[in-house]
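Duplicate of #3305? Posting structure anyway:
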């Protein structure tokens, strides 16, 4: 009895070894393929303008199909045209927002001398008048854009969350308004939150689309670009870095009052005196916030360039 058990055990071991032996090349090939695809996906995400453009276009086409925006016929090209029109009108808005932002951030308007302020306001008004002229001209040329409310809300909110200038504005707004909540890491939290919003929106619309559409292939392509790639982007480029940054920062010791008195020096980043400080492994003292600012750019000590 014991020997037959032993034989069975031996046989299953041999079988396992064979399975491992045969499947080995497949595992290697699959791993290589996955790594290759991952590399190209990351490269695509790094080309931010193209990445944003492709997502926006796909999302707009998806929305115009789902909300059945007024198109001449039920051909796919018509929906594509609708998406292009949407992008054109939103781009006009973006262009003039960029102009306004440039005027506001130019030094001249910051000196609140009455004359400069007046000039700044005039320039902004002129820029927006130009925007209205562009829209009127487009309409004269027959390029009209009168979206339905659900279409406008979903596409415009998606556009705001993916276009670089607006994500920058969100980040700055969060920096001033919600300083404590994000623990000074809003450059990672804000894109993450925006990505969560766009992915949730895409999933909701995709679910409805899958149930009703005849363009099934397009639905799959959309799932890949609007959901899978965005989730990957959030995970690898924001979530993981967020974890790493928090970990690195928590590892640094807080300086006691006695240590601060002994060190008796200014913070090397902002050149101010320190009443609170973090100590790096290389025994350098910095303001917690100054060190955090530096860690955003690289994981090197600002003073001796030691890699944390
Ligand atoms: Zn400092
Ligand atoms: Zn150092």
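Output from current build:
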């Amino acid at each position: 009895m014991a020997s037959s058990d032993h034989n069975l055990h031996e046989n299953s071991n041999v079988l396992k070894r064979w399975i491992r032996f045969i499947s080995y090349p497949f595992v290697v090939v699959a791993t290589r393929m996955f790594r290759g695809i991952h590399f190209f996906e990351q490269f695509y995400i790094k080309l931010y303008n193209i990445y944003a453009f492709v997502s926006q276009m796909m999302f707009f086409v998806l929305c115009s199909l789902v909300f059945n925006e007024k198109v001449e016929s039920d051909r796919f090209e018509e929906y594509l045209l609708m998406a292009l029109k949407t992008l054109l009108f939103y781009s006009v808005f973006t262009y003039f927002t960029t102009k306004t932002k440039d005027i506001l951030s130019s030094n001249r308007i910051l000196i609140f001398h009455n004359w400069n302020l007046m000039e700044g306001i005039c320039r902004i008004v002129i820029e927006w008048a130009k925007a209205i002229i562009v829209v009127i001209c487009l309409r004269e040329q027959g390029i009209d854009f009168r979206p339905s409310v659900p279409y406008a809300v979903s596409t415009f909110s998606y556009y705001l969350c993916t276009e670089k200038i607006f994500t920058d504005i969100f980040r700055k707004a969060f920096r001033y308004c919600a300083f404590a909540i994000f623990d000074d890491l809003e450059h990672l939290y804000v894109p993450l939150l925006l990505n969560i919003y766009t992915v949730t929106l895409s999933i909701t619309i995709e679910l409805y689309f899958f149930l009703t559409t005849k363009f099934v292939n397009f639905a799959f392509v959309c799932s890949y670009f609007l959901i899978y790639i965005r989730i990957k982007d959030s995970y690898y480029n924001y979530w993981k870095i967020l974890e790493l940054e928090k970990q690195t920062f928590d590892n640094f010791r807080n300086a006691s009052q006695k240590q601060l008195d002994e060190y008796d020096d200014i913070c090397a980043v902002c050149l101010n005196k320190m009443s609170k400080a973090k100590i790096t492994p290389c025994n350098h003292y910095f303001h917690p916030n100054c060190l955090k600012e530096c860690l955003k750019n690289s994981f090197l000590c600002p003073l001796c360039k030691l890699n944390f």
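Confirmed duplicate; merging threads. Residues 267, 269-270, 272, 286-287, 290 surround zinc ion (ligand 1) (CB under 6 Å). The mean pLDDT is 86.
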